[in-house]
Design a protein that fits this description.
Length: about 150
């Protein structure tokens, strides 16, 4: 028997909840007065343990030995403006840098993520909303909240 831990992220057109994007599962939640996105899982191949993936490119050398799981990929996001856009920062573990970012929930239910350099913002991806449940063993199981068409 499954118990629902969280309903899918976008039922109220807000970014809260679990998302799949960039090969990650991200939990969008309140972090103090703002919204952040915490890396909950990393999809890896070859039997590698995701907890062993370190933040080895971080600009701050003291953080290079920390695991990426549990760290914020999105942070300092303000509450939504009148257009439904949230603004904050996105961390790129590939180069260890943070950039200005904008996110919004699209009509499709996906989360649009943009990275910004100076005044130019480019779409970097669309994250898919997830439904997370607990199975009989107490382990979390994620599934797409809006399943893709099968044909």
């Amino acid at each position: 028997m499954f118990a629902v831990q969280d309903t899918y992220a976008n039922k109220e057109k807000n970014p809260y909840g679990y998302w799949n994007g960039f090969g990650l599962i991200i939990n969008m939640k309140d972090c103090e007065e703002n919204i952040c996105g915490v890396i909950e899982h990393i999809f890896v191949s070859g039997g590698k343990d995701p907890i062993e993936i370190l933040d080895e490119n971080n600009q701050d050398k003291t953080l290079r030995s920390r695991t990426l799981i549990g760290s914020n990929i999105l942070y300092d996001f303000s509450k939504r403006d009148e257009k439904g856009v949230y603004t904050g920062r996105i961390y790129n573990p590939e180069d260890g840098k943070s950039y200005k970012s904008k996110i919004r929930v699209l009509d499709s239910g996906n989360l649009e993520v943009k990275g910004c350099i100076t005044l130019i913002c480019r779409k970097t991806g669309e994250w898919l909303p997830l439904r997370v449940e607990l199975n009989e063993d107490g382990k979390r199981v994620a599934s797409l909240a809006n399943p893709l068409a099968i044909f």
